[in-house]
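Predict the holo structure. Ligand: magnesium ion.
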Amino acid sequence: MTIGWHFDNSYSRLPKTFKENIDPVAVNSPEILILNKDLANKLDLDFSNINDDDLSKIFSGNKLPEESNSIAQAYAGHQFGHFTMLGDGRAVLIGEHLNKNSERFDIQFKGSGKTPFSRGGDGRAVLGPMLREYIISEAMHFLKIPTTRSLAVVKTGEDVIREQISKGAILTRVALGHLRVGTFQYIAAKQNISDLEILINYTIEKYYPNIKSSKNKALDLLKVLIEKQTQLVIDWMRVGFIHGVMNTDNMSISGETIDYGPCAFMDVYDPKTVFSSIDQLGRYAYDNQPKIAKWNLTRFAECLIPLISKNEDEAVTLARDALDKFEKNYETKWLNMMRDKLGLYGEDKEDKDLIIKLLNWMHKNKADYTNTFVFLMNRTIKNSKIYNNEDFNLWKIKWVKRLTMFNNSQDKSMELMNSSNPMVIPRNHKIEEALTLASNGDLTLFNKLIKILKNPYLVNDNDLEFMSPAPHGDKKYQTFCGT
Ligand code: AMP
Ligand code: MG
């Protein structure tokens, strides 16, 4: 029963402190529901000689591949600002798979049962949220945003008790790696400097071999992560993605978007948008994401201090210098990203003002963030009446004038806009519709949604309904953690 796994489990070779060996807890009657053939191809997995029954056993963890080495990873995290020791409470890393190009991927089962880190939880996951993670993570991938991906969803045939009784499921998550800022916090909290050194060397070996011979590895690792996280948040801001729970345990060292819980895409432009039911103070609101990224990076820097320099004052100064560059770097990248969205080449000193004026107009007039840019690209959208507005037209005159600066052709501007502005994002109401049908066994809309999201920068006229925001707005849309 082989599908071509080729494991080399580097994380499981780390010292005992880093993990607990634990197998997935077998489930009653696993049934494969979704299998991601595109991703399987990328991994060089082959399902041609395998039936659904065996696939169900494989992707539920009922039958583990021989070379796998199943572990729960230890980590800590600041959750809404409060420090806690955590760890994989409902997931196991079954191994690191190498494809034929020797590219390495973590293969993790999410919802695989209790582990020593479960802290009273049942270790399980609910079908709806796992299908939701599948949709959104795949959408992010095709939006060209670094992300963990989803290889399979299996129904467990078991009930999971939350506020109501729900169907259980297991998601196979594929990532460049599952190290988190929280992994460093866990090891740093144990105050064993040699483990910290092991973790830094391991991280550099696995993710950032280009800084292997650096003179100050800890400092360079900090700088690399600042750069990665800055770029990631810029990408989120570009498409209106709100992660929803940017706790330090959900910030990946690989720079991938990870942990799709209460995340959602913003429809109407409002920088204070929050969907998460528990985020009362808006800590993880849309426009707070860069600030929180810096806050998390500062927690990361704190872990590295003992290895940045033996002289603590010097280490703090070096780390602070690196962190202090965050805002300026972010602003430069953000301006460039927004220039791309508007098709603007070159730099003009009035650009920031032009961009802010458009965002303020969207906010005041409750315009849809995604569709405003689509409208500016002269594409068909439903409900374009809103743009028949004096202030908008005055803004547009300035924009058109700016477009012609630096002698650029309209085609080149359009090309830039096309590659920066998705025509379709996973709209919350469409996801909900697809999930309701899917949990009753009808995957038609789920599959259609996935198909459309695979080409987010190009939508044909028959699929315009997937571009429209919820008919009565999204203000009351709520998302939930830990489901
Ligand atoms: P999350 O909100 O998914 O990032 O999870 C935060 C922490 O809670 C992690 O340590 C998870 O492993 C743990 N956790 C979430 N749901 C469960 C569950 N049903 N059973 C056990 N642990 C869980
Ligand atoms: Mg998490």
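The pocket of magnesium ion (ligand 2) is lined by residues 249-250, 259 (CB under 6 Å). The chain has 15 helices and twelve strands.
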